[in-house]
């Protein structure tokens, strides 16, 4: 998706480079438009190097390119029609006033008037300018026109004063961008069944075999799917998490209970995402009373049910089934072998040997594997990663272009 970042002339303009890089980490195609004042704080070359795209700074043709006057004259219309979102950060008091009153004397203000895409502004200015009635009135006008405002933070300002007016932190702006872009119903009409957490197998009345799964990735997937319009069924092993709103929750403890819940409800689902960390073994026999410490202990184990393979064997026409694989050695090879062995449509590979991500963390990095592709999704918040995974799942439904021997692409 194409996001246009507008940079206006405030000291916080240098933070826009950080915003551009953060947006790119979410697989967004970022383009930059700068005002003349913004170029006094940061050079266009910085953004061109980051994005790989031309940075637009003027409505007019540069003198060294006189033959491109027609292209320059309509460039703002082309940019307005092709962007999926316009985010202005920093948005100065001046640019807010121009937006509110419909003034269009440079590329950024003209783009704002010409686009029908959603608009986000992240104001940054002196505290007195922020609190001035004129600025607040302009913000009310923009808000009434469905412009999303990411309010500034409070703290020490570049002018030496303390108060509101400091540009919001980059993660807050990124969250607003992703919220707008993902506030769509591309999963409307779908029923998504998600499994989450780690199953437990009792050793005795007080102990169990388990794993380190926190359930955060599965819960993030359930929340993301619901936000995108799906009906969501969450089959969850014990976690410390609060279930997402508007999601049907089926609590389970053991692998057998999870198997029963999945097989009972999978006929209702168009997409099944097996994100749970299922125990592979359980005690052959559970002790009826608490086992006492008495020296070395041997416990006989038996394999648990293979829920993913059984679900694939019972799938109905058009149903997508996605598995997860937590690996520590030769992760891609082992995950692809699992994909082929189980017969799922894709496997989300989590290399749990990497430090700082995965188990118990709010961040993760995965590889989305199909039979013919391996797409690395870089480290990001699990909630953001959930949306990226859902996008790749939806892409499995799209017709794939194949180039024939004659060079013609067909679907």
Describe this protein with a few key phrases.
single chain; 411 residues; alpha/beta; Rossmann fold; five-stranded parallel β-sheet; 21 strands; 24% strand
Explain what this protein looks like in three dimensions.
- By secondary structure, this protein is α/β, with parallel strands linked by helices.
- It has 13 helices and 21 strands.
- A hairpin with a 4-residue loop joins strand 18 and strand 19 (374-381).
- The radius of gyration is 26 Å and the shape is elongated.
- Residues 66-70 and 401-411 have low confidence and may be disordered.
The name CATH uses for the topology of the largest domain is: Rossmann fold
**Topology, number of strands:** 21
Give the spatial strand order of the biggest sheet: 12-11-8-13-16-17-18-19
Beta-strand fraction estimate: 15-25%
The radius of gyration is 26 Å
Number of helices: 13
Sketch the major β-sheet. Answer: 8 strands, mixed
Give the overall shape: elongated
Quickly give the structural class: alpha/beta
- Looking at this structure, what is the CATH superfamily of the largest domain? CoaB-like
Mean pLDDT figure: 88
Tell me the distance between the termini: 22 Å
- Low-pLDDT residue intervals, each spanning 5 or more residues: 66-70, 401-411
Work out the count of structural domains: 2
Q: Which percent range fits the helix content?
A: 25-40%
User: Judging by the overall fold, what is the CATH architecture of the largest domain?
Assistant: 3-Layer(aba) Sandwich
Secondary-structure map:
Blueprint: E1 2-7, H1 15-24, E2 29-34, H2 44-51, H3 69-82, E3 85-91, H4 93-101, H5 107-114, E4 119-123, H6 127-131, H7 133-144, E5 148-149, E6 153-156, E7 162-166, H8 170-181, E8 191-196, E9 201-202, E10 208-209, H9 216-227, E11 231-236, E12 248-251, H10 255-265, E13 271-274, E14 281-283, E15 301-303, H11 307-313, E16 320-327, H12 331-342, E17 346-351, E18 363-369, E19 374-381, H13 382-395, E20 402-403, E21 409-410
Parallel strand pairs: 1-2, 1-3, 3-4, 4-5, 8-11, 8-13, 11-12, 13-16, 16-17
Antiparallel strand pairs: 6-7, 9-10, 14-15, 17-18, 18-19, 20-21
Helix pairs in contact: 1-2, 1-8, 3-5, 4-7, 9-13
């Amino acid at each position: 998706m194409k996001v246009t970042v507008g940079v206006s002339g405030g000291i916080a303009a240098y933070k826009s480079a950080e915003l551009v890089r953060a947006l790119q980490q979410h697989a967004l195609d970022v383009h930059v438009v700068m005002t003349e004042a913004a170029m006094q704080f940061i050079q266009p070359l910085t953004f061109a190097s980051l994005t790989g795209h031309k940075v637009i700074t003027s409505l007019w043709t540069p003198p060294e390119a006189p033959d491109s006057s027609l292209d320059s004259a309509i460039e703002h219309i082309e940019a307005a029609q092709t962007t999926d979102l316009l985010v202005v950060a920093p948005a100065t008091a001046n640019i807010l006033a121009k937006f509110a009153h419909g003034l269009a004397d440079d590329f950024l203000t003209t783009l704002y008037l010409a686009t029908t895409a959603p608009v986000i502004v992240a104001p940054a200015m002196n505290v007195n300018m922020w609190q001035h009635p004129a600025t607040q009135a302009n913000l009310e006008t923009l808000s009434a026109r469905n412009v999303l405002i990411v309010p500034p933070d409070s703290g020490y300002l570049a002018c030496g004063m303390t108060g509101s007016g400091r540009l919001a932190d980059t993660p807050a702006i990124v969250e607003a961008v992703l919220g707008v872009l993902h506030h769509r119903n591309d999963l409307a009409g779908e029923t998504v069944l998600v499994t989450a957490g780690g199953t437990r197998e009792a050793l005795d009345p007080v102990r169990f075999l388990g794993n380190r799964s926190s359930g955060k990735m599965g819960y993030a997937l359930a929340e993301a799917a619901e936000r995108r319009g799906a009906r969501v069924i969450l089959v969850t092993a014990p976690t410390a998490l609060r279930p997402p709103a508007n999601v049907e929750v089926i609590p389970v403890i053991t692998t057998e209970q999870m198997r029963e819940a999945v097989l009972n409800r999978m006929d209702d689902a168009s997409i099944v995402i097996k994100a749970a960390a299922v125990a592979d073994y359980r005690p052959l026999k559970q002790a009826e009373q608490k086992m006492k410490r008495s020296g070395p202990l041997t416990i006989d184990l038996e394999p648990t049910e293979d829920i993913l393979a059984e679900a694939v064997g019972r799938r109905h026409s058009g149903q997508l089934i996605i598995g997860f694989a937590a690996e520590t050695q030769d992760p891609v090879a082992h995950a692809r072998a699992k994909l082929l062995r189980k017969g799922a449509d894709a496997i989300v590979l989590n290399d749990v040997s990497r430090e700082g991500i995965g188990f118990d963390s709010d961040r993760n990095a995965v590889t989305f594997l199909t039979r013919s592709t391996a797409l690395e999704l870089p480290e990001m918040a699990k909630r953001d990663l959930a949306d990226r995974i859902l996008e790749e799942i939806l892409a499995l439904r799209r017709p794939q272009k194949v180039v024939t021997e004659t060079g013609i692409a067909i679907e």
